Amino acid sequence: MRPIQARISIGAMAHNLRVARSHAGGARIFAVVKANAYGHGLSRARRALAAADGFAVLTLEEAANLRLMGVDQPIVLLEGLFGADEIATCSELDLWPVLHHAAQLDWLQQQPPARPIQVFLKFDSGMHRLGFPLVEHAAIVARTKSLAGVAGITLMTHFAQADEPAGVDWQLQPFLHELAGHDLPWSSANSAALLRYPETRGTWVRPGLMLYGASPFADVTAAELGLRPAMTLQSEVIGVQRLQAGEGVGYGQLFRADRPMRVGIVACGYADGYPRHALTGTPVLVDGRASRTLGRVSMDMLCVDLSDCPAAGVGSPVVLWGEGLPVDTVASAAGTSSYELLCALAARVPVAETN
């Protein structure tokens, strides 16, 4: 059997939820489990994060699967309704859609559910992605309150720079100022805001990335935040090559040796979810020792430097990210984000579950 494997730690996710809880104060927690729980598996995340007050997903299918798994907490649909035909399902499964454009209000008015539903009203406070304009809040809230199919309203916004020096104040203050008079529950905090800006807690917080043990900040490690990696991607050396000075390795010969050296060939490539654009120098662990990738990542293989791993050979374990090698470190070196690496784990990679 090909030696690549992802190990998913249920215990680490549960621990990270407790860290989120310690920052949430009195706010309730929607655990964000969209995109197959950021690559960790919806079923695993459901069990690991069972103590969450609710779950946040993208699609009706994800929400329905959670209900089939026995989840009885609130489930929010982060992109809301994609058509009027989804309203009945929201009512049947007690799903809370995010409403962010007028057509969704029209659908609810034209086809009110048999049982009224809780909704989120999303307002654009500056990210300019989804959301009603803040200047229209009075009319939007009033219209939503008038709909027979709406049981309750939570106000919502999303931050564009909570993980950057610009912070959240430029969005949070207009949001709070404009909507204060409505006396409704509200939600604004993602992982970065929850960890750094307690004033964003509101009624509900929406941690995602931190639950999987990665840091939302470029200048603070996951370990410094008290987080534990939930996913470890590992494989083995399946071949060893000896290069002479001037010889290259891999497609395009992008790496050429400047001295005699040994190169390990690892069973992991971009078809497994490892980034093809990762350049020479992206960190890996070989036999528990720090090493680096060499040359271009192939579909099924990548090359690593064995210069500082004299005992390594065929069968030596290799950690691509996870325990001992933070996914944030790998992502930074590869010019991408930990979000992308975790979500990109390929279906062909076997997954083992640990505590």
Question: Would you kindly provide a written description of the structure presented here, covering whatever features stand out?
Answer:
The protein is of the alpha/beta class and 355 residues long. The chain folds into two domains: 203 residues, Alanine racemase (TIM Barrel), CATH 3.20.20; 124 residues, Lyase, Ornithine Decarboxylase, Chain A, domain 1 (Beta Barrel), CATH 2.40.37.10. 26% of the residues lie in helices and 26% in strands. The strands form three sheets. Strands 2-3-4-5-6-8-9-10 form an eight-stranded parallel β-barrel, surrounded by six helices.
From the structure above, extract its key features:
Lyase, Ornithine Decarboxylase, Chain A, domain 1; single chain; six-stranded antiparallel barrel; 2 domains; 11 helices; 355 residues; eight-stranded parallel barrel; 26% strand; TIM Barrel; alpha/beta
In short:
The chain has about 350 residues and is of the alpha/beta class.
Would you spell out the secondary-structure blueprint of this structure?
Elements: E1 5-9, H1 10-24, E2 28-32, H2 34-38, H3 42-48, E3 54-57, H4 60-68, E4 75-77, H5 87-93, E5 95-99, H6 102-110, E6 117-124, E7 132-133, H7 137-146, E8 150-156, H8 169-179, E9 186-189, H9 191-196, E10 204-205, E11 231-243, E12 248-249, E13 255-256, E14 261-266, E15 283-286, E16 289-294, E17 302-305, E18 317-321, H10 327-333, H11 338-343, E19 351-354
Parallel strand pairs: 1-19, 2-3, 2-10, 3-4, 4-5, 5-6, 6-7, 6-8, 8-9, 9-10
Antiparallel strand pairs: 1-11, 11-14, 11-18, 12-13, 14-17, 15-16, 15-18, 16-17
Helix pairs in contact: 1-3
